[in-house]
Each structure stands twice: as structure tokens, then as C-alpha cells.
Design brief:
Strand content: 25-35%
Structural class: alpha+beta
CATH topology of the largest domain: TIM Barrel
Low-confidence stretches: 696-714
CATH architecture of the largest domain: Alpha-Beta Barrel
CATH class of the largest domain: Alpha Beta
Mean pLDDT: 93
Radius of gyration: 28 Å
Helix content: 10-25%
Strand order of the largest sheet: 33-32-31-30-29-28-27-34
Distance between the termini: 81 Å
Number of helices: 12
């Protein structure tokens, strides 16, 4: 009978990598798995986190394991590449940091053993990801187990999968369930026993066979219907000899139909089922990607609280435990491989192997409806090799899984008629209009244009969002990193996106702030702060409640939320107060007195409150209240004002004469002036010179390559939404640094350029 022994304890870790350890040294660090060596330096900024080969070492006795015929080492996540050595013998190598893989260690086992796993997250040109806007945490960051089985067993080496694949097909009120198992060493006299159970573990049907395939019929099938009714069945397969179970596997599955319609969006079991949700990265502050089950549960609880019906699990395979939770809670998933940002001609084999593992290991999850081929891979344009790689992956997905669709997340600058958008079954775009460029009003009309140009292609929004930290303002502006602008941005996006049902899914980028060590933005380097919740999961930003107001029924979780409670000191005479609620009416009380009731058809309520002395504000909806305070001050409290970490200049240090440009102006505005364009060309030459002098060969900014030769690359167009000062700060991510004197000189040059007079 199969035994699974958890192997997380009593490891030793070392960054010394001049040779494979032959023993445990006193200098090694004692660690317990899951573990990453980048939990701290992967989120502190500077793009200098430790990326190298490191070793994990563990001594153990064979007698500590159950007596068995075969022993497999199971590694559920080793980022990015890994080698396994047992008693000095190299047993295996694996490329890909996010999937499960197993190693037969039986022949190398001795009475006393030294297990060494070398894990390497060094840069290379064959294993994805290599360029992306997130930290590539190194380590054995998921469970390691020893799986003990007989010679006759369900295959443990078939792309790291569970050894069983279940394919339900719904036919009217019934379902046909096809089962395939992968078996090794099946002997004469042994048989396979298949059993189907309902959610309450009642046996529904049983079949004995020597065939590795079986078919069941479920009458009056109970459908898996998303968050409304995530009903799960179970299928167990056993190898039996003379009445004794030699090995067994079990998997849950759900019976459901779905389609993605270009006009009507996502259809689940014949009903329109709008997909509005979030993307998720798996890391946490101080923990990195070495998550425990309670972390996964808290993440899903928060995602469910906000009312999401879908999650895009970016940009790699996530923990099986999290997929299981999504099955149970009814979230509809987009699952993808880390084929991201930069196409590597030498990485094709790795995209194929990672896709095979993703599909094999996750085939049975009813929550998954699409396989993501790539993310923003065309940022440098589509060439023949990139297109061929996508066709290979697309064909592979359809060959391995005939029940699901394929998709891509296209970068915003990707043309609507780009040939790579013709490859997958459905498409989606990553748009940041209103943050990186353009304004919020562009989003809905852009999708209308796409839908009109390609009425037969289902299009979704795979990423959108903007950053917010604990900065505050009464006059929110694009690029200011305030909680108030993020709330405004999401209010506008919600109103545009949720009213266009042809958009097959929307995914906020991101549910949680996450590690991106190359980032130097917003005054807290090393993180992407587009989350609705902070990276430590301790604070839900106001925008969290904007979504909750739209997506959560008041019958399920009625609430009222008063925005900007962290913003107390105010200079204005009249303060605009924003309230979110899923209830139809909100009443506002100021120092105990009602200033009126308001209704809203979009769940957003706005009040004007006189700012005099210290004021207590209470928002009331039904039986629910939320309270905050404002206080009149004469000058702005600078604790609310963005201060870039490590910046040589902050915006309030910049001289900005009226009617003249300065470093505080957006690049796109400056480029509207002929003199401004000439100024930018001169600055571009300086940047190019600095980049050439830099030792950073990657020349990448937040996961994107900058094409300075063209001067008008798509990325540069997006960057037009940033002020010049913000752009120079971001250039530090490419080791391109400007001195205070250089910046002041640039500002003096801009001060000489008149702003164009706007026509009324």
C-alpha cells in the first residue's frame, strides 16, 4: 500500500556552491521546508537578490522509512532548476520551478544516506521565466515527500501527475465519466478497481478490470456550478491482488459544461456566469513563496470576500493545495506557464515540458477552464520563432486536453490584428490605460473597437490596475500612488468593464501586492503595489471594497465602507467623502448629525462635508456602520506625500514655474511640444550612453526591455503616462542613475520650454 512520508524537517542549507556537499558542515544553516533564500532580499529593492546555485542537505536512515519495494523523492517546487544527489550519485535534473516532479531513488538507497538537492535560480537563456515583473524566489519552497510504493503502482514519473485522469461529459441531466490511469509494473493476477463516490463519500458505482480505462454513467448528475454550487465527486483507482490493495490513487472531479462566447462572455452549464476577479501571485512579505496551508486558505478567503468569481493564477503553476481549494470554493481559473515577457529561442523545449506538467498535474481540476500559453510575450514584436512556439503549445494543449480552451495575455501595445492572436481559442489583453498611459476612459471604448473589428474572437481583460501605498491626497492624479487615485481608477474601470458582457473575463492586477525586487516606485522599493490588499495581507485598500460592493450580494455579506480613513489631516474647507456599499442607501452622520441620505445605482456614494476642527464621520447603511475622522490643518501633512526611497529628488523639490514644463510633467505632455521632443532626444542620447556604460546586460525595466533605438516603442508610449522624474527613478532599475545635479539641469532646461496653450 502506498505510503507518503513528509520530508520537510531536518534540512541544512548553504549558499556555498563550489562543490556538491559530501557531508553536513557546521557552517550550514538548519532549515525546515518550505524554504526560500530570497524571503528578505527578494523584496527590498535594487534588483540584487541572490540568484545562484544553493544546496539543501539532509541525512536520514532507510530504517526511518516504511518498508517498501520502491522509493520516490517527490519535490513539489524547486525554483528554478534542480539536481538530486543521493550518497554522491546524481539521480536527476529538472528545469522548471513551479511544478511537481519525482525521482526514483530506490537503487541508490543505503542504510545511512546523504540526500543533496542543488537548487539554482541563476539567470540563463533556456528556462522560463527570465524576464518578468516579479521576484524569482529560489529554494525548495513547497513540500518534499518520499512516496513509498510497490513495483506495481500508479505511475509517479508521468510528468509529475497523479496517475489518474478523469474526463466528465455532461449529456442533458446525466454525465459520462471516462477514467484513464497510468500504471507501471502491473502483474498477472492483479486487477484495477475503479470506484465513483459522491460528495458525501457514498459509493455510486464500482468497476473491476485489467484495462487502464473505464467509463461510468452518473444519472441526474449534480453539476459543479462555480461559487453558487461547487459540487465535487471523487474517483478512486486501486491495484488489487488476492483481495489486497497494492496501490491506490484518488482524485476529486466536477461535472460541468462551459463555453466562452464572443458576445455573451462566459457560459457555465448553459447559464451566463460573469467572470470578474483577480490575478494572484503566491508570495508574502517576509515569507516569499514558501507558503504554508494557512497562507493559501487566507488568500482564498480574501478573494472570496471581495466577491471574485475567477482567478488568473499568474504567471506559473501554483500549489496543488490552492487548486484544490478553488475546486472546493467554486472559483473559475486561468492556469498558465511562465512563458513571459521575453521570447527565448533556446527556451522552446522548456515551454513544452512546463506545459506538459501543468496540464498533466492539473487535468482533474474542474475549476480550470483555460490554459494560458504566454504573457506579454510579444512586447518585442512577433517573429516566426515566437509564432511557431505558440502553435506548438496550442496544439499540445488540444492534444492533451480536448475539454478546455487556450488563451494568451497580450501586452497592451500588441496590435489587434497581430498574427499571434489568431493562434489561441480566446484572447485577453493586459491594459493599464489610466496608469501607465492614456486615461481611464479609454478602456471600455478600446474593447468596443476590438469587438467590432473581431466579432468572432472572445476577448477578455487579463490585467488592469494601478499602484497605491499609504499616500493620500484630496486631488488624486494619475501616477501619484495614492490610495485615493487607486480607488478612483477602479471605480471608473468597474463601471466600464462590468457593463460589457462580451468581455469574457476581467482580472484585476493584482489581488495582493507582491515582490518585484527590480521595482523602485511609490516610495517602497522591491514591490509591485497594485494589490487590492497589502503584501502582508493586513490591510485591505479602499479599492477592495469597491469590488466587494459590486460583486457581493447584500444577502450574503451586507456592508458599508468609509474610504480614506488613513487620511485624517486635511487642508481643504470642504472634503469629498466617498462611501462604498452593496446596500441601496447610505446615510452620512457628521459629529452625530445626519447630513442626508443618498442612493446609488453603482454602489458608490459621494458626500460633501465641511472640514472644521476635528470631525467624526459615520457612514450608515441598513444596520451597518463605518467610522472615520478628518481634522482641519493649515498646511499639508507631509507624511501623506510620496517620498521616493533612495531618490535624489522628490517632486516637491522641483521648481515648476506656471506655464513652463518641469520634471513633474508627464512625458506625453512634453512630447506635444516641438522643443519638448528635441529635449527628449537629447535626454535619450544621455540614457543610451549611461546604459552602454552600465554593466547590466539585461537593460530591463520592471520586466520590460526598453527599445531606445526606436524612440517610439510601445513601452515608451505607455511610459508617457509618467512624469519625467518618475521615469528617471524607474531607470535606476536598469542601473541608469542620475545625480541631483543632472536632474536639476534637466529641470532648468524644461523650465525654458513653454507649455502649449490648450484650445478651449
Amino acid at each position: 500500500m502506498r505510503n507518503i512520508v513528509n520530508f520537510n524537517d531536518s534540512w541544512f542549507f548553504t549558499k556555498t556552491n563550489d562543490k556538491v556537499p559530501a557531508e553536513v558542515s557546521d557552517s550550514f544553516e538548519a532549515v525546515t521546508l518550505p524554504h526560500t533564500w530570497n524571503a528578505i532580499d527578494g523584496v527590498d529593492g535594487g534588483n540584487d537578490y541572490h540568484r545562484a546555485l544553493c544546496y539543501y542537505v539532509k541525512s536520514f536512515s532507510k530504517s526511518s522509512l516504511p518498508v517498501s519495494e520502491l522509493y520516490f523523492l517527490e519535490i513539489n517546487g524547486a525554483n528554478s532548476s534542480a539536481d538530486v544527489y543521493l550518497n554522491g550519485e546524481k539521480l536527476a535534473h529538472h528545469d522548471g520551478g513551479y511544478s511537481t516532479w519525482r525521482v526514483d531513488m530506490t537503487s541508490a538507497l543505503k542504510d545511512e544516506n546523504l540526500l543533496v538537492i542543488g537548487v539554482d535560480n541563476s539567470p540563463n537563456d533556456t528556462v522560463y521565466p527570465q524576464m518578468a515583473d516579479f521576484t524569482f524566489y529560489g529554494g525548495l519552497y513547497r513540500d518534499v515527500n518520499i512516496v513509498c510504493v510497490s513495483e506495481s503502482h500508479f505511475d509517479l514519473e508521468y510528468y509529475g501527475g497523479p496517475g489518474i485522469a478523469v474526463t466528465p461529459t455532461v449529456n442533458g441531466s446525466d454525465a459520462t465519466v471516462s477514467v484513464q490511469v497510468y500504471v507501471k509494473g502491473l502483474k498477472d493476477g492483479q486487477k484495477l478497481v475503479y470506484t465513483i463516490y459522491d460528495k458525501d463519500e457514498n459509493e455510486l458505482d464500482k468497476l473491476e478490470s485489467t484495462d487502464t480505462k473505464a467509463v461510468f454513467e452518473i444519472k441526474n448528475v449534480h453539476l459543479w456550478h462555480g461559487r453558487k454550487d461547487p459540487y465535487l465527486y471523487c474517483c478512486e483507482a486501486e491495484i488489487v491482488e488476492n483481495g489486497e490493495v497494492i496501490d491506490n490513487v484518488c482524485t476529486r472531479f466536477g461535472c460541468r459544461t462551459f463555453k466562452i462566447d464572443p458576445d455573451n462572455g462566459f457560459i457555465l452549464n448553459g447559464e451566463e456566469y460573469p467572470l470578474h476577479g483577480v490575478s494572484r501571485h503566491q508570495d508574502r512579505l517576509g515569507i516569499g513563496n514558501a507558503l504554508l496551508p494557512e497562507h493559501h486558505r487566507e488568500d482564498l478567503d480574501l478573494i472570496c470576500e471581495v466577491g471574485a468569481t475567477t482567478i488568473r493564477l499568474a504567471h506559473y503553476q501554483h500549489s496543488q493545495y490552492f487548486y484544490d481549494l478553488c475546486d472546493e470554493r467554486g472559483l473559475v481559473l486561468w492556469a498558465e506557464i511562465p512563458y513571459i515577457s521575453k521570447h527565448m529561442p533556446g527556451g522552446r523545449e522548456n515551454t513544452v515540458s512546463q506545459m506538459k506538467e501543468l496540464i498533466t498535474q492539473n487535468y482533474n481540476h474542474p475549476s480550470i477552464v483555460v490554459w494560458g500559453l504566454s504573457n506579454e510575450i510579444s512586447i518585442g514584436g512577433s517573429d516566426d520563432d515566437l509564432l511557431e512556439n505558440h502553435r506548438i503549445l496550442n496544439d499540445l494543449c488540444h492534444e492533451m486536453d480536448k475539454t478546455r480552451l487556450t488563451t494568451v495575455a497580450a501586452v497592451s501595445m500588441c496590435k489587434m490584428d497581430d498574427p499571434y492572436l489568431q493562434i489561441p481559442d480566446v484572447v485577453a489583453y493586459n491594459h493599464y490605460f489610466g496608469w501607465y498611459g492614456g486615461n481611464t476612459s479609454i478602456n471600455g471604448p478600446w474593447f468596443d473597437r476590438f469587438h467590432a473589428a473581431h466579432p468572432n474572437i472572445a476577448v477578455g481583460l487579463s490585467e488592469y490596475g494601478c499602484e497605491a501605498l499609504n499616500w493620500h491626497t484630496s486631488n488624486p492624479k494619475q501616477g501619484d500612488y495614492t490610495e485615493e487615485y487607486q480607488a478612483y481608477y477602479h471605480e471608473e474601470l468597474i463601471k466600464q468593464l462590468f457593463t460589457r458582457k462580451y468581455i469574457w473575463a476581467t482580472h484585476v492586477w493584482n489581488m495582493f501586492d507582491f515582490g518585484a525586487d527590480a521595482r523602485a516606485e511609490g516610495g517602497e522599493n522591491g514591490q509591485n503595489h497594485k494589490g487590492l490588499v497589502t503584501m502582508d495581507r493586513k490591510y485591505k485598500k479602499d479599492s477592495f471594497y469597491a469590488y466587494k460592493a459590486w460583486l457581493v450580494s447584500p444577502e450574503v455579506d451586507p456592508f458599508v465602507h468609509l474610504c480614506s480613513k488613513r487620511y485624517v489631516d486635511r487642508v481643504e474647507d470642504v472634503t469629498k467623502v466617498t462611501v462604498y456599499s452593496n446596500l441601496p442607501e447610505v446615510e452620512l452622520f457628521v459629529n452625530g448629525e445626519s447630513i442626508g441620505k443618498k442612493t446609488s445605482d453603482n454602489h458608490f456614494f459621494y458626500f460633501d462635508v465641511k472640514n472644521e476642527g476635528e470631525t467624526t464621520i459615520v457612514a450608515k447603511a441598513g444596520e451597518f456602520t463605518d467610522e472615520g475622522k478628518i481634522r482641519k490643518v493649515d498646511t499639508m501633512n507631509m507624511d501623506y506625500v510620496l517620498k521616493e526611497k533612495g531618490a535624489v529628488l522628490n517632486w516637491f523639490d522641483v521648481e515648476a514655474p506656471i506655464g513652463r514644463f518641469s520634471l513633474n510633467d508627464k512625458l506625453s505632455d512634453i512630447m506635444q511640444s516641438k522643443r519638448g521632443k528635441l529635449w527628449f532626444i537629447g535626454v535619450g542620447l544621455k540614457i543610451k550612453k549611461k546604459m552602454k556604460a552600465s554593466k547590466n546586460d539585461d537593460k530591463k525595466s520592471g520586466g520590460f526591455e526598453v527599445d531606445l533605438k526606436s524612440g517610439n516603442s510601445g513601452l515608451m508610449q505607455m511610459m508617457g503616462g509618467f512624469t519625467v522624474l518618475r521615469l528617471t527613478t524607474m531607470m535606476a532599475m536598469m542601473n541608469v542613475n542620475f545625480t541631483k545635479e543632472e536632474l536639476l539641469k534637466m529641470n532648468r532646461q524644461l523650465n525654458k520650454i513653454k507649455k502649449p496653450v490648450k484650445k478651449s
